[in-house]
């Protein structure tokens, strides 16, 4: 459901969004704070669940988390947008989109 994915130990990558965070572009990528938290959760899972095939060690975990945080810092390439997910109308709309596109 979220547009931000963490698939490598120290880089934030999503084939659909990588151009937005590339240093070679001037685009800004917008995502929700929920997606940002989900990306941090993926990093945490990759670090603490040692049986994962994509497990990452302590230093790559902290490096990737810091890099992600830097992307959303003031002036960063990723801007967090509050979408009011606790609003039932917003939640219903998100759920309908997720079902429609099998997300």
Would you kindly provide a written description of the structure presented here, covering whatever features stand out?
The chain is mainly alpha-helical and 103 residues long. The protein has one domain. Helix content is 47%, strand content 8%. The protein has helices at residues 18-21, 33-48, 58-72, 88-100; strands at residues 29-32, 78-81. The chain has a two-stranded parallel sheet. α2 runs antiparallel to α3. The longest helix is centred in the middle third of the chain and has 16 residues, at 33-48. The radius of gyration is 15 Å and the shape is globular. It starts with 17 loop residues before the first helix and ends with a helix. Mean pLDDT is 76; it is low at 1-21.
Secondary structure elements and pairings:
Blueprint: H1 18-21, E1 29-32, H2 33-48, H3 58-72, E2 78-81, H4 88-100
Parallel strand pairs: 1-2
Helix pairs in contact: 2-3
Class based on secondary structure composition and strand pairing: mainly alpha
Helix content: 40-55%
How are the strands ordered across the major sheet? 1-2
Oligomer status? single chain
What is the overall shape? globular
Uncertain spans, ≥5 residues at pLDDT below 50? 1-21
* Global Rg: 15 Å
Discrete helix count? 4
Order of helical and strand elements: HEHHEH
How much of the residues is beta strand, in percent?
Answer: 5-15%
Biggest beta sheet attributes: 2 strands, parallel
Number of domains: 1
Number of strands: 2
Averaged pLDDT: 76
Q: What distance lies between the first and last C-alpha atoms, to the nearest angstrom? A: 5 Å
């Amino acid at each position: 459901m979220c547009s931000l994915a963490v698939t490598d130990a120290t880089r934030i990558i999503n084939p659909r969004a990588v151009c937005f965070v590339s240093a070679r572009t001037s685009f800004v990528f917008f995502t929700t704070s929920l997606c940002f938290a989900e990306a941090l959760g993926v990093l945490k899972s990759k670090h603490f669940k040692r049986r994962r095939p994509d497990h990452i060690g302590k230093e790559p975990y902290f490096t990737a988390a810091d890099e992600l945080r830097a992307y959303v810092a003031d002036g960063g390439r990723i801007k967090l947008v509050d979408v009011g997910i606790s609003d039932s109308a917003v939640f219903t709309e998100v759920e309908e989109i997720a079902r429609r596109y099998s997300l």
